[in-house]
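Quick check before the chapter quiz. The format below is the same one you will see on the exam, so make sure you can read both the input and the output lines.
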Amino acid sequence: MMKVIRLSDGRIKTDKWINRYLIRSSLYLIICLSLLLSLNGSAQARPMIVDINPRKINIDHDFKGISLLVYGARNDAGNIVIVVRGPRENQILRRKGRVLGIWTNVENIKLDDFYSYYSVSSMKPLTSVQNDMLLKNLEVGLDNIDISYGDPVSPKKLAKLKRSSIKLMKGKGLYREDDYDISFWGETLFRSFIEFPKNISKGTYDIDVYLFNDGLLHSYQTLPVIVEKVGVEAYVQDMAMQSPALYGVMCVALALVIGWLAAWFFSKRQLS
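Here is the expected output.
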């Protein structure tokens, strides 16, 4: 099946174009990597060069999601792991239950500084890193995400709430964890596609690329991706956030005008 990618300007490119683009970019990466190693040959953590395409994502009324390409070159063995973290947000988790035989919301739980998007791609399972404490400290892996709640809860309930929160986000396509999701050319060049669904939030997304080997972090690089809303949707959202009173008045006024026009139209039809 042919792989396609949608660029930030709306253009659609096929896997054949992607391969040509990667070959040209990879040559540049190899040259830069060689120069860096020659200048810093005594460094304990050898560098890894990574780039992305596109660097900016525009959300408009026709946005249906996008595949972001992460590619690069390494000069050392190990497991490459790509983690994408969206902007943190405060959210409300609602638990449903039966009350007098009717399903309704029985509990509202506030999530503080919750990742609006989280994706993990790796060339091997995360267990191959063989350092659970390191992964936990770096928040690498869905099980290692640090989730805090507005109200204090017991450890048992905290674990249950965490599973429910992650399951909810996975159902929306906003959380994912995929092993063997990084392709290689030889031992040096690699690439991976990160899927962003249509319901992503605007803000800055951090793409962190790790190189683990023998239970240690050998190299690390981070790149930002800017997600912005454009067009009428962006204008309306900015007005609602920055001037809520004015936004409310305009909504009421628009509803009154539409109601008046509808009443006038139907009264004219009845008279005729």
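If your answer matched, good. The longest helix spans residues 244-271.
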